[in-house]
Amino acid sequence: MTAGFKSKVLLISMFGMMAAPLSGRSGVEADILEEVNFLRSNPSAFARELDDLRDRFDGDILLGEGDGPDFTTHEGPRAVSEAARELRRRRAVNTLMPSDLLARAAADHVRAQGASGQTGHYSNGKGPGQRVKARGGNVYVGEVIVYNYTSAQNAVQQLVVDDGVPDRGHRKLLFLPQYRYAGVACGSHRQWRNMCVIVLAQTRDGSPIMPPKGE
């Protein structure tokens, strides 16, 4: 997605079907942004974490750590292996800075959808670009959503592995170097226990980057 794409990359991950909710977490949004930046700045190190993840499979079931819940997956460990191989070929890209405006737009979606139990990129008739615009920004944004995660690391791993998503669109979106800012909001979800929305943009408010005068 570049400056003209108007929230056309809208992606959702539901890697786990049996994950338990987290409660009493503080700073989960900051933790997830930190994990995304770890992915972008050091993909080979993130790949090593996926190696550990792959070793926890029993068939297509991802076994929980300690007393944690198990996950039912579509593709099993082969999707994790594929993700790790690709990350080892990727170069680092710039890290993302936090944007309060993008985070407020993400939080609007969490509040509405968490209460309704719906999934997807629309709530109250608004998609991500419309939500950012309602907060005073512009519509040139991308968005990924993860449901039913157990930690910040698990949330980003879901998006990177992209189990059951043939084009691995979440992974591609998280690596776009055009993006410079992100707003993250997480909360409870009526059906999927919890959810986290990440809105990404080239600018702090979702406005396009204009070319220099004379070009």
TrEMBL record:
Endpoints of the signal sequence: 1-19
The keyword Signal is assigned to this record: yes
UniProt cross-references to InterPro entries, sorted A to Z: CAP_dom, CAP_sf
Keywords: Signal
Record keyword Signal present: yes
Domain of life: Bacteria
Domain SCP: from-to ranges: 86-197
Pfam families for this protein: CAP
Name under which the protein is recorded: CAP domain-containing protein
